[in-house]
Amino acid sequence: MEIVQPEVVDEDIVLEAAATERAAYQPDDDSENVGTFFERSTVAETRDDAAREKRKRLIWLAGGLVAVVVVAVGLLLPMLLEEPPAPVVATTPAIPVNPQRAATNRRLEQLNRSIKVWMIQYGSGFNPAQVTLERLQQDLNICEQEMLDGWGTALRFEPEAEKYRVISAGPDKSFGTPDDLKRETAIK
């Protein structure tokens, strides 16, 4: 058997050959980094960009939500902490209701409205001087009781060119005194 001797390799020659091989390599892009190139996939970059955008949107949304909550608390908190106003107590005694006066005011208002409606039905050719309470009572079918004030005195109707008045004699039952109750209405 023959013994094969390994070739003796000179280390300097191997190092020199590797250096020559490295010096001969010229990358295509002329970059100074001649080392290993890492190629990133565009799909991975797109996923990373989408994730970053999603995080940004979530941060803006959370910030907006926090701002809305802060504003709402700032507006509502003073209202919730505010003391309710103290009840207002009347310092003047209430005027007792006079049933005769209240009934007279109601009748004057009713008669005044009825006269207005009656005048609208007659239109623009209407002359208030032609109106009497008797005619109104007949045309509007008003009963005798509704033509009396609260004290039992008959109401008075006073027509003028541009207005009319319905008058009650008041508690003293005399017309032309300060206690008379009146409703005056313009025709036009």
Task: Write structural notes for this entry.
It is a single chain. The protein is mainly α. The chain has a domain at 99-186. Helices cover 45% and strands 9% of the residues. It has 4 helices and 3 strands. It has helices at 11-24, 42-81, 99-122, 133-139; strands at 156-159, 163-168, 181-186. The protein has a 3-stranded antiparallel sheet, covered by helices on one side. The termini are far apart.
Output the helix-strand order: HHHHEEE
Task: Please count the helical segments.
Answer: 4
Q: What order do the strands of the largest sheet run in, or round the barrel if closed? A: 1-2-3
Rounded to the nearest angstrom, the radius of gyration is 53 Å
Reported for the largest beta sheet, the result is: 3 strands, antiparallel
* Stretches with pLDDT under 50, minimum 5 residues: none
Question: How much of the residues is beta strand, in percent?
Answer: 5-15%
Give helix % range: 40-55%
Structural class: mainly alpha
Region (Disordered): 168-188
Protein name: Type II secretion system protein GspG C-terminal domain-containing protein
Organism: Sedimenticola selenatireducens
Biased composition (Basic and acidic residues): 179-188
Features of this protein?
single chain; 188 residues; mainly alpha; rod-shaped; transmembrane helix
